[in-house]
Amino acid sequence: MSNSLKEQYATTPLFGSNAAAIETLYEQYLENPDSVAAGWRDYFRGIADGGRDTPHSPIRQRLALDARGGKRSGVGTAARSGTLDIDASQKQAAVSRLIQVYSLRGHQIADIDPLGIMERHTPGVLKLDYLGLNEADMNTEFYTGGLAGTGNRRMKLADILALLKRIYCGKIGAEFAHVSRARERLWLRQRFEDGVVSLDFDQEERLWLLDQLTAAEGIERYLHTRFVGQKRFSLEGGESLIPMLDQLIQKSGEAGAKEIVIGMAHRGRINVLVNVLGKSPEELFEEFEGNVDPAEMKGSGDVKYHKGFSADMKTPGGNVHIALAFNPSHLEIVNPVVEGSVRARQQRRGDEDRSLVIPILVHGDAAFAGQGVVTETFQMSQTNGFRTGGTIHIVINNQIGFTTSRPQDARSTTYCSDVAKMIEAPIFHVNGDDPEAVMFVTRLALEYRQKFRKDVVIDLVCYRRHGHNEADEPSATQPVMYSRIRDHESTRERYAKRLISAGVIDAAGVGKMQDDYRGRLDRGEPVPRSHLGMIGDEFTVDWSPYTDAEWDDPVDTTLSPEKVAELSKKITTLPDGFVLHGRVQRIISERERMAADEVPMDWGFAETMAYAGLLDEGFDCRVTGQDSGRGTFFHRHAVLHNQSNRQEYVPLEHISKRKGAFRVIDSLLSEEAVMGFEYGYATTEPNTLVIWEGQFGDFCNGAQVVIDQFISSGESKWGRLCGLTLFLPHGYEGQGPEHSSARLERFLQLCAEHNMQVCVPSTPAQMFHMIRRQMLRRYRKPLIVMTPKSLLRHKLSTSSLRQLSEGRFHTIIPEQGEIAPKNTRRVVLCSGKVYYDLLEAREVHGVDDVALVRIEQLYPFPIDEYAAIIEQYAEVRDIVWCQEEPQNQGAWYQIRHRLQESLNDEQTLYYAGRASAAAPASGIFKLHMQQQQALVEAALDIKMKAAKSKQAAKKARKSK
């Protein structure tokens, strides 16, 4: 080492007491060799012996050897010679730790609370004496380790401490030490430190900021005086959100983005609609005044702070389309919906690096910490089937959850944002009363997202000037907080004074800015100057063809025999040398025989052929579920696995030449977030068959909020069409309460105004035609399918190959035997698996006067088809509805009126099924079988002995 370097590092000998400091330097060297001084770089390079990295234990051994006087030159020689001061080296190590500790924990004492009521206790580790430093060291110079771009400079401890506090304890509290990837962490540290030190906005930017804050405050005050007492969930106290979102839009466009999808709950939504997205103030005022013609309304409509909006905005990089998602009062449930919409838009644009479409989610602090769907959405963020390239999360941190203001009542973590650490998302806590600090973290967050394609969180710490809504009185439960808020100047007022003091603007200019904004509101003009209205581009979807379709519009769902042969060959042809598992090989071999019409067609083959036909006709397919690739019941096998290696092959991917036309995704173990994601995808892409499949149908209740708030009512509330299909395995096979029922009754209870379809197909051909009908019609409504379990391999539940080239989906299947209406004593109506139980029992007991009719579509109920069938049995007195589910569940109570209305005065409708029960099914198999036998007996009006029936059934099967 040169004499100059020896002098430079005279305070850093390689004594054992300095191991921590030297270890820190070595860590920096491993992460970025240029981040350490040249002398240290040369030294560490020598230790590494030319390798890219070295385990720490050999390094520690080498350092220890040098410290004991080993035969090495450079720094070790200086240490061995005893020319360096031991105490000084210990102090340098302490300063190195001080710098590291401030970067790790400085956020804990940062000035991020505008109200000053947040409890901020200085950790002992940030105190000088804890690190072995004291006031006497304040004028001593120490090596800075490249802090905030200081390079290899030495600074006085007092200056180092001041710089650390300025960076890490100012208006921004940064948390990125939990980011494990060194490249990301070093990038964040460098950008953050350099940015805070050099933070300086020019006059134009400051005036723009003031104008944005004026708009944010102006709309709230305008509405407060014009519409006294009406709910609007104002943004007052968090006005910095408006320039933040505007900045994200402008900078995203400048970075090349073409679309942004925003999801947010109530607070500030009206403000965002007017000041960011350009919704007409005149239209907003009409909504406040309730000027709506009921005769022109379709559906229920929704309150103004739930509504979505779309607009194109002008940015330095070109026009950017902005969509604010519609969402209900269920707080964070919109998160996965936004992600699904973003994924669909990225797919449409071929945005493989996920830079063209950006999701932004605006959260409330209490909901962000408390709602499980937030965690589920984070868990999805980096998975293959759901990745969107990183979401920018903004938490409007009002420091209060409705009336819960103490952190220990609202969460079990220090910050509401701590949940984001599960995916190592960097987090920036920022004081909402410092709009320039807010703008800095906004730009940094976007830059991080675009560079690393990962989530990032901005915790906008602010307050709520009014209560939960404008009619609420918050001081009743938060007297201290609201006494502080009453005396607290608004963000705009504080920033205006700051600019006046700096000579950027005078008081008259501030007043004129306010008057101009109010004038634009009075004239009903769109407020944002970058607003362009709806222009659209080649990727804009026209939904008009789907708006006037009817569920019973005729459509041809067949495939020609030639096409069936062509597609069936593609789905059964494997690459050379591809070795299948024995059981799977048998399934593929059976499919080859089905394609050759040698054996009847099963459900797996029919479903696969339905997808193949749609793909061939230009539609895309996306199937998502916890076992969808293979199929929970080992029937689908859309993804084949080579048993000799890890190779996978998806035959359906080779039907179409379009990239990504078919996707089958084994999802994370989530119902709520994944179903929400698929809903968002389906509402964005009408030409993709989007399917969410429950592992068991029962599990859909984990996503009940999505079903209630979006699937069943999204069109009625917001006019949002959606063709999402739910596959819910349903059927009573004695598997207990949690694996029997997909809660059919709940879906039927939600059915009205032709909002969705509920089907229970009983044959493979029915499944085939139903799937194809969902896309070939212009009808884009959710389809709820009670899919089978045991029927997947039931010998009677099969179809012939020719049925793919003939027929259609039948909403009702009449009696298929030779029982003529004139010889019928009783008609049994049913759906699903129980039909086959009835059919077998009828055969075994020689019942020849009971007709079995299957209702395959329960909603919209096929009234005319049903009436026509009942008319054939006008002389039959007993009409029975038979179901496996308990009486208070299943379809009985939801369709009884439909079944009754076509009967004549001489006919009586009876129920045959399980008695009402609290649980969906028995967990005792023997009891299940007794109940099943009883309901079949009641439906057929027979009495059978279990043993005799079993023997007779076996004999009948043999005779076949």
Structural features, described:
Helices cover 40% and strands 13% of the residues. The protein contains 33 helices and 24 strands. It has 960 residues and is of the alpha/beta class. The model is unreliable at 1-17, 49-55, 57-61 and 67-84 (pLDDT under 50).
Descriptive key words:
960 residues, alpha/beta, Rossmann fold, 4 domains, eight-stranded mixed sheet, seven-stranded mixed sheet, 33 helices, 40% helix, 13% strand, disordered N terminus
Describe the main β-sheet briefly.
8 strands, mixed
SS strand fraction: 5-15%
Number of strands: 24
Class by helix and strand content?
Answer: alpha/beta
Our count of domains comes out at: 4
Mean pLDDT: 88
Detail the poorly predicted runs. 1-17, 49-55, 57-61, 67-84
How many helices? 33
Radius of gyration: 34 Å
CATH-defined fold name of the largest domain: Rossmann fold
- The named CATH superfamily of the largest domain: Thiamin diphosphate (ThDP)-binding fold, Pyr/PP domains
Dominant shape: elongated
The CATH class name of the largest domain reads: Alpha Beta
